[in-house]
Amino acid sequence: KAGVTQTPRYLIKTRGQQVTLSCSPISGHRSVSWYQQTPGQGLQFLFEYFSETQRNKGNFPGRFSGRQFSNSRSEMNVSTLELGDSALYLCASSLVPGPDTQYFGPGTRLTVL
Amino acid sequence: DAKTTQPNSMESNEEEPVHLPCNHSTISGTDYIHWYRQLPSQGPEYVIHGLTSNVNNRMASLAIAEDRKSSTLILHRATLRDAAVYYCILRPSNDYKLSFGAGTTVTVRA
Q1: Residue A86 — very low, low, confident or very high, per pLDDT cuts 50/70/90?
Q2: SS3 A101
Q3: Which of B46, B96, B100 sits opposite A42 (nearest CB)?
Q4: Under an 8 A CB cutoff, do A103 and B46 touch?
Q5: DSSP string spanning A22-76?
Q6: Strands A5-7 and A19-24
Q7: What is residue A103's predicted lDDT score, i.e. its pLDDT?
Q8: How close is the nearest chain B Cα to the Cα of A79, in Å?
Q9: Which residues 41-80 of B have a C-beta within 8 angstroms of A?
């Protein structure tokens, strides 16, 4: 069974631009979570989606948003990019929401110049 | 979020066992103990989890203290591919997210 896939793997943007990252969960998994990883803050939870609905959100500004499609694929969007948004963005999928085991993708490395 | 304490780093020789400690003195009765690892340039990878009893799988063993205030992840025979950051995470049974700490960086010497 294929794992979680994320596209693109690497991205370079400039301040003020916006970016969209994509995540395809493991087949049959319906819950998708997003995390941001930076050297200073470590891994931090962004948001979680299930059945096309955002169920939970971490402590991030409104510039960070996401959505989930009917096939469980998810996208996250960051608008008005700042230098501090440079990070590894990780997507994780699980069968259902809650404490089910989460399986992570390889991440998208975003660099903001 | 309940906190865990792990050593910053550990070194091991190839083909020797590795014992990774984790202290979680404020653990509550509904907290599961999860271990993930992150290899360089990859996303975190699930290793094992448990509640009260020791657990074994193909990757590792998890030994949980009787009072549940500490646990140990055991890699039975370390290989170079086991070099990674290992995260010990407490996750309440009704929690939707993983709260990662700094983890333990494991180095394996050939």
Answers
A1: very high
A2: coil
A3: B100
A4: yes
A5: EEEPPTT--EEEEEEEETTTEEEEEEEEETTEEEEE-S--TTEEEEE-TTS-EEE
A6: antiparallel
A7: 94
A8: 24
A9: 41-46, 49
B19: phi then psi, degrees, rounded to nearest 5? -115, 115
Predicted pLDDT of residue B1: 58
Per-residue pLDDT of A62-76, as tens digits, reads: 999 999 999 999 999
Distance CA B63, CA B35 (A): 12
CB-CB contact of B23 with B5 (8 Å): yes
In the numeric block, the tokens 């929401």 are attached to: A97
**How crowded is the C-beta side of B62, counted as CA atoms within 13 Å?**
26
The C-alpha atoms of residue A49 and residue B67 are separated, in whole angstroms, by: 35
How far apart, in whole angstroms, are the C-alpha atoms of residue A27 and residue A72? Answer: 9
pLDDT tens, position by position, for chain B (110 residues)?
Answer: 568 999 999 999 999 999 999 999 999 988 999 999 999 889 999 999 999 999 999 999 999 999 999 999 999 999 999 999 999 999 887 778 888 989 999 999 99
A69 CB contacts (<8 Å, ≥6 apart)? A52, A75
Omega before A8 within 30 of 0, i.e. cis: yes
